[in-house]
Every structure is written in C-alpha cells, then in structure tokens.
Amino acid sequence: MSEEHKNLKDKLIPVLLPILSSIIILLGATIIYLYSSGYRIDILKREINITGVITVQSEPSIADLYVNEENIGKTPRSHVLKVGDYDISLRKDNYRDWSKKITVFEGKSTPISPFLIYETIASKEKWKSEGVIEKIWINETRNNILFLQKDSNSSYSLWEYTINTPIWDFSTNPVKILDIETNKISISISPNGQRAILTSTDSENTTFYLLNTQQLNTLGSSNQLPFGNYSKYTMSWSKNNRYIMFDSSKELLSYDIEKRTFTTLLKKDPLVKYLWDTDTENFLYIITEIINDELEDIYTYSLVQKSLTGNNTKTIIEKIYLQESEEYIKEYRETISNWQEFSNSPESTQSAGEIKDLDVNINAEGMYISTSFASYWYFIDTSKFLMISPYPTELLSYSPNFVQLGIKDSTGYHIFTSDKEEEDHTVEIGSKSLENVKSNFFWLSNSSCIYFKEDNSIYITDKDGDNKYQLVDSDNILEYVINNAREILYTFEKDSDGRLTIVENKFH
Predict the structure, then answer these.
(1) What is the pLDDT of residue 487?
(2) What backbone phi and psi angles, to 5 degrees, belong to 228?
(3) What strands, in cross-sheet order, belong to the sheet with 441-443?
(4) What does pLDDT average to over the chain?
(5) How far apart are the first and last CA of the chain?
(6) Tens digit of pLDDT for each residue in 468-480?
(7) I need a labelling partner for 37 at 20 to 30 A (CA). Which of 49, 68, 134, 408 fits?
C-alpha cells in the first residue's frame, strides 16, 4: 500500500466510523420499533408481516391450543400471528371441544379465556324429601332455596338449602327452619337470603312473620310483624336487606326490621306519576314526573335521593327530558352503528318515551332507565346517558363484576356493556345480541359465561352466546343454580310422587 493510500485510509476511518455506528444504531432502533409495533421480518420470504398477539388462558389450563387446526402448544399461551381472521380451538381429554372465530389486530393483544366443560356430566343425588313439595322459592342472589314440604301427618315444614357454603361448614344442608300447620303461605326472601317474610293467610286474617333462614323458627309474638294494616300495599325488600318497603297509590313507607319502626318516605299526589328504587347502602331514589307546560311534546322528570330513614333529601337530576313521540328514535333503530354517550337536554333525539322502570346499582355506578320506547343507562359520575336498546326492555341480571347486564327486548336477548378496560379492544360499549339464547339467563361467578333453561334442558354458553353446551335434560326441574366455584349445577327436581330431589351435576 502506497503512503498516499495509507494516509487516505487514516483520514477516512475516523469519519466513516461514526457514520456506520449511527447507521447500525438507527437500523437496530428501527428493528426494535417495528418488532414492538407488531411487525415481523421474514428473511426467507423477503417480506415484513404486520402482527398481533393472542393470549389464551383456559379454565382449566393445559389444554391443546389450535390455530387454523395447527397445534401450537398448551395453555396458558401467548402467540404472535399475522393480522387477520383465525379459527381458534381448544381440546383436552375428558372435556368438550371449544372453538371461536377471532380477529388479530395490528400491535394488539387479543385475550381469549375459554371455559371448558366435561364431556360427561357426573350426576349424583344429594338429598331427597320425605314428603311432597308444595312450593319453592329462591332469593335474588340465587344462593338460598326455600321449599315447603307436606309431611306424613298432614302438617307442613319449611326447609332451606344454601348453595354456597364455606368449605369448613359441615352443618346439615338442607335444614328445617319451621314447622307449620298450613300451606296457605307466601315467602319473600331478603336479597342476601338470610331473612324472609312469611305471610300466612286464613279465612279471616293475614299474619306476617320475620324468619331467620339460618335456624329453626317458631311462629309467635316475638317475630310477628305489624303489617296487618298494610296487607293491600305492595311489599318488597330494600336492597340493603334492612327495610321492608310498602307502596300504595297514596304513599311510600319503609319499615326498619331492626328498630321495628315505620317511616313515611313519600306522600303521593294522585295527579303525579312516581317511580322508585333503593340501593345497597341506605338510600331511596324517587323519579317524579314534572308537569311542564313550557315544553311541548316533552316528558320531564326529576330524580331525588333520600335516606331510608326519611332524612337527607338530595336532588340527583333536576330535570330528565324525554321526547313524547316515538318518531325520534325510529331512525336510530335503523341506523345505529355505535354507542355514544349523550347529555340530557330537551333537544336530545336519543331519549324518548314515558319512564316505566328504573334500577339503581351503586356497584355499577349507574342507573338503568326503561321507557315506553327504549331503555338507557345513566352514569352517576359523569351525568351522561347511553342508550341500552332503542326498544323497551326487561332487565334480567347484572354480571358479578357489574360491568354488564342482561336484557330482553322485542328483538331477543342481549348483553349490554357499560364500561371497559381502555386497553382491551375485544370489549365494545353497547349491546350485543345473543343469537343462541332464547330464554332468561344467569351469570357464572367469573362473569365469563351465562346459563339458562330452554324447554327441559339447562345450557351454558360463553357470554357472547358462542359454544352452547347442554348440561342436563329433565322435565322435572323446578329450580337450578350453578355454584360460585363454577363446578356444580344444582337442580331441584320434583318426581312423579311429588318429592323433591336435589341433584349435584358436576360439569367442570
């Protein structure tokens, strides 16, 4: 090498080295950025693929995971896939196959949580009554079953069965809680199932008693309730299990079962329409129609909160406006494509109809409102509304996580979602139709599945209606409940002799 070339090399190296280093760093940063954004480089095919991730956590785990019929390993598992549509399926010995069509999005993780069902349901008789079953009742949380049995001596006994008992509880289940001489009774169980109002009727009198469902009771003056003058009122439990509500066309009362005192909560104007509900704390909510001549063709209401003791009145919504004409939401029924929150105003064309029902849920931080034309969700923290359905609906039940609620309208059964984790793209705000569900349904304790009775069979599906499995088939089922452990379906079946059999059906 000549001295001239050597000198040139010595001059270029200091110049080129930083440039090459910068190029390498830039190239590396670009590759890292592309990788983190979901891009994958296929050297053999000389192409860059846009990808996303599926994250599969099955219950139970260690199931074979298939993507388009290709086995990619055991669950739990995360797997990178090109953006697009895929058939996902799970297979596990002694369990039924599970499958779903999913879409992988660019740079996003798609969570998938299959709930697997035994191939064969193991059924076992848990208990059988000695006498004929006359009546059966279940509480709101579906944890406590009461049933009236006719005994051999023509007397009657009231029994209670608890679905979810602590693992350390070895007490008798079911347990007899009352001996009684008549079957002319009705039962109203508290929401938590720990208390019940027994109403006994004969030719002359109606008598009310407070029962403890966890122990043996007697009927006497100590647990008799002073409800004789209110027998024609509509009677119901408050959601906090402490008060009995009495409603008539003239007034609304509460009875404190601990203090044994009545409180007048509302004196009604015969020309005004009222609706009310309680919450799980200590409050009453009253919707009152406001006669407003200034606004034509508008229903106007106010929402007031007060303590169930009658104190601390507070206006929650000064005026709720709803259009009187159904015409305002007919177009909405035809063109709805997304679900957007809206403010309450006389000009709103998304709110219409006369209010017919409400349900306040503090845990869900909102209120369900059903009108003669549609139904809505009111967000307590933002004072915004969201349409649940552009049709009148029946509220079925809230999911255990209070994010979703089941509804029924003239078009079928639906699940409405009021909230979502910001990063979870698989959940959409609004209502989703359940094509495979044709009857009222209940939630599994993890909010992932629903179960219901159709004809003589009990079914379970994913909460979107996919993967519909039959659990049991019997024309004798009076009631049915899945326990919180999500392992056993309890069926309460009445045989040809009128006896009650409690059956454990292990499905998971």
Answers:
(1) 97
(2) -55, -35
(3) 441-443, 449-454, 457-462, 469-473
(4) 89
(5) 80
(6) 999 999 999 999 9
(7) 68
Q: What pTM value is reported for the model? A: 0.88
Tell me the HSE value of 344 on the side-chain side, using a 13 A CA sphere. Answer: 22
Cβ within 8 Å of residue 455, ≥6 positions away = none
Rounded to an integer, what distance in angstroms lies between the CA atom of residue 385 and that of residue 370?
Answer: 12
What integer pLDDT is reported at residue 383 of this predicted model?
A: 87
Residue 247 has pLDDT above 70, yes or no: yes
C-alpha dihedral sign at 347, 351, 353, 359: negative
Fold of 42-112: Immunoglobulin-like (2.60.40)
Helices (H), 192-341: 327-335
374: nearest Cα among 342, 419, 421 = 342
Report pLDDT for 305.
Answer: 94
* CA separation for the pair 77, 80 (Å, rounded): 10
User: What distances in angstroms separate CA 231 from CA 204, 235, 260, one per listed residue?
Assistant: 13, 8, 17
pLDDT score at 472: 97
For the chain, percent of residues with pLDDT exceeding 70: 89
Reference 414, options 475, 349, 465; nearest CA is: 465
Give the Cβ contact number of residue 242 at 10 Å.
18
Cβ pair 64, 70 in contact under 8 A: no
List CB contacts of 398: < 8 A, sequence separation 6 or more: 361, 363, 364, 404, 405, 406, 443
Q: How many CB atoms lie within 10 A of CB 458?
A: 22
Q: Where residue 30 falls among pLDDT bands split at 50, 70, 90? A: very low
Burial label for 259, CB within 10 Å (0-12, 13-18, 19+), is exposed
Rounded Cα–Cα distance for residues 277 and 345 (Å)? 23
- pLDDT, tens digit, 9 for 90 and up, residues 412-459: 999 999 887 766 777 788 889 999 999 999 999 999 999 999 999 999
Q: Give Cα 393 to chain centroid, integer Å.
A: 15
Question: Which of 485, 479, 428, 421 has its CA nearest to residue 453?
Answer: 479
The two tokens of residue 489 are 């379906």
CA distance 385 to 373: 15
Say if residue 337's pLDDT is above 80.
Answer: no
Tell me, what DSSP letter sits at residue 295? S
Separation CA 445–CA 451 (nearest Å): 11
Among residues 152, 149, 153, 150, which one has the least CA distance to residue 161? 149
